[in-house]
């Protein structure tokens, strides 16, 4: 019986010190978030329900610019935090030994801290895959005419005869 407990303890400890488990769960959650928000966006676009006017403000290009600025800020902060952490761990490991590194990696806060960057990368990657897959798909909602270059970014790619002016 104690062998079974020891085996489960060993597995739990392996998951706690594994740096891939928490990031994998976070990226999978980001992809699920993308699927949910995409389906919600499609439902609103088809007219399944109305959203308040304060929810939609601006153009897709302005939203893209805001998200790009937020992503750049997050990546800058994550890069600085990562660099400082590596320096601190290098100095601490020379004084306290390798056990300190194991305890640091085991800490949930250490594994969750870079979450915003991973989640955003997973969400954006899923969005880019969807946009690439929908490049030739055009679906107009019933009773509504789509404006060229309007709401759906894929709509711009469906008109090869209209190239942007340079």
From TrEMBL:
List all Basic and acidic residues biased stretches: 153-166
Q: Where does the signal sequence lie?
A: none
Which segments cross the bilayer? 20-40, 69-92
Region Disordered: which residues? 114-166
Q: Please give the InterPro entries that the UniProt record associates with this protein.
A: DUF2254_membrane (IPR018723)
Q: Which UniProt keywords apply?
A: Membrane, Transmembrane, Transmembrane helix
Report whether Translocase shows up as a keyword of the record: no
Is-annotated flag, keyword Transmembrane?
yes
Q: What is this protein called?
A: DUF2254 domain-containing protein
Name its species. Nocardia seriolae
